[in-house]
Amino acid sequence: MSTTEKQGLLNPEGRAFKLGSVGADWIDQRTSMSSVVKNFARKVFPDHWSFMFGEVALYSFVVLLISGTFLTMFFVPSMDEVTYEGIYEPLYGLEMSRAYASTLDLSFEVKGGLLFRQMHHWAALLFMVAIFVHMFRVFFTGAFRKPRELNWLVGFSLMILGMVAGFSGYSLPDDVLSGNGLRIADGLMKSIPLVGTYMSMLLFGGEFPGTDIIPRLFTIHILLVPAAIMGLIAIHLVMLVVHKHAHYPGPGATDRNVVGYPLFPVYTAKAGGFFFIVFGLIALVSATVSINSVWAYGPYDPSPVSAGSQPDWYMLFTDGGLRLIPGWEFTIFGYVISLNMLIPMVFYGLFLAALALWPFLEQWVTGDDREHHVLDLPYNAPVRTAFGVAWITEYILLVLGATNDLVAIAFHISINDLTWLYRIGFFVAPVVAFIVTKRICLAIQRHKRDLVLHGVETAKVVRMENGEMLEIHEPLNEYERWTLVQHDTFRPLKEGNGVSGLRAKASSFFFKDQIDPVTPRELRAALEHGGHERHKIEALTGPYRELEP
């Protein structure tokens, strides 16, 4: 387009500009979009690096949709047996499912197929990483409190759906690794008394592996789960706009405003650039680092189980629980009750439910029913932070349990000894993590309280004429001080007036040992004392700047 043509489009008197204005006005009269766009564009969002993890999850999902659309054009979700006659010679002439054969064709014969396969898989891993990190940023800062409890549940549901999408996706190639994962799922279902066998037959279309599981997983993977994820993302973003964005404590930050920049033009420009950064990094990793090399495993055969077979990292914890629990089972009325399957499944439900229901549990314990838009600093909520660290510790223990064979081989140690170490750690490590984390949070609270009252130590000491030793402290400025004193003081609920004994004890435990923020009276006294000491030092040595090296 020439410069003259461009100027014509931008000229208010030009024909193209007038036609565009008429068209925009016609659409606006029927949709009222101008007011929506105007209000949304001026929406203020805080500027902090930790808020970017939610964007990483969103952009990874966009990459998943783009790459998944490409893969859908070539993948054949069928378990019909065929003889492989493709270009990958080690598997030439073998019997395999059409799903596995089409995956090999995608990898070796479709231009860009292997790159798109790997981009899809790496984007899925990044999607789950970003969701986990984003959720724990929300958790540790208390962003889930009123009015955002439902949005927390939406985010939790996205995490679960991401797991379902990942499991259904890496089960589609029908190789040995994915088949082993489906075999575990089949075993878990069959361990459920009375109905387990019927559930397995219904899902697999007969005795495992059946002939229907791949087409059914394909429908779940490309239709049901993506639609649910897109719907929840839309709900999540709408709630974000309606509730307004939470922000960190700082100058001007209150529960009645948002300190930051408008969506347009600041965040639209940032978001566009950040999307291409995420896309570029996924493409770079996918082009240089191999993942899910299905040709190395071969087509699925129920008889072999490859050594070192683990699912993707976000599903490892489910495998870890199954490996760590002893083989407990008993028979009652002719039914085998497999506790080694049932106990892990019950634990997984409670484990995830504790995270999902924490906002409501914390509100019940604290009795705090106010709206919160200013985030907590994690050390100001020691029990919440300690619980989060304990939850992560338990998760890591289960992940390590799922890799016990690889760790034992790598470090030349007994797999039995390692399994027992993980079993003991399963009960001990979260408790230790909780206690240590809480003590660290309380120590940080005391340190921050000292900073407010006495300022920052400068390591400069002055000896007075009477022999008294005074250290020079640099007081905090008013902005730094406000960040450290703005949080609220809560007291445990007392039994009575509708408060049960259990709730009172839980409330006492939640607030036990917590350090109160500096009061205005304490701050005035500290400033007066500091000013007096400063006056004594300056009377002897002159202004502080003369003491600078």
Automatic annotation (TrEMBL):
Bilayer disposition of the protein: Multi-pass membrane protein
Chain ranges of the Cytochrome b/b6 N-terminal region profile domain: 23-249
PROSITE patterns: CYTB_CTER, CYTB_NTER
GO biological process, one term: respiratory electron transport chain
Pfam families for this protein: Cytochrom_B_N_2
UniProt subcellular location: Cell membrane
Main location: membrane
Cofactor(s) needed: heme
Gene Ontology CC terms: plasma membrane
Reaction catalyzed: a quinol + 2 Fe(III)-[cytochrome c](out) = a quinone + 2 Fe(II)-[cytochrome c](out) + 2 H(+)(out)
Spans traversing the lipid bilayer: 56-76, 122-140, 152-172, 218-242, 274-297, 332-361, 395-414, 420-441
Alphabetically ordered keywords of this record: Cell membrane, Electron transport, Heme, Iron, Membrane, Metal-binding, Respiratory chain, Translocase, Transmembrane, Transmembrane helix, Transport
One of the record's GO molecular function terms: oxidoreductase activity
Superkingdom of this protein's organism: Bacteria
InterPro entries the UniProt entry points to: Cyt_b/b6_C, Cyt_b/b6_N, Cytb/b6-like_sf, Di-haem_cyt_TM
EC number: 7.1.1.8
Protein name: Cytochrome bc1 complex cytochrome b subunit
Species: Helcobacillus massiliensis
